[in-house]
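S2.1 Query sequence (Cytochrome c)
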Amino acid sequence: MIRPLFVLIATLVPFAAQAGDAAAGKKRATACQTCHGMDGLSKLPEAPNLAGQVEPYLVKALTEYRDGKRQNEIMNVVAKDLTDADIANLAAYYSGIQVDVLPPG
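Output structure tokens follow.
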């Protein structure tokens, strides 16, 4: 039981060390708004919603787009010039947007 907990903590430490600045992320997000919206809610059916996504996931996805490990024609171009700080800030901004989920009807 201790070993899996150690692995989980070791996996999350790099993300905690990269805590971003949501205000700086909001400014940087202007480049994202065409597809993902300033509110993180997608304006295009092929672009995912970013609002409320967990911060480590966003950091991982943007880093993989930037580094070419994850392929998307648009995102690879958009992410190629992002610094680690830009990625952390964008992740902090979009993960900090509250999303309310309501059941149908």
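Residues 55 and 91 are 5 Å apart (CA to CA). The helical segments are 2-17, 22-28, 33-36, 55-67, 73-79, 84-95.
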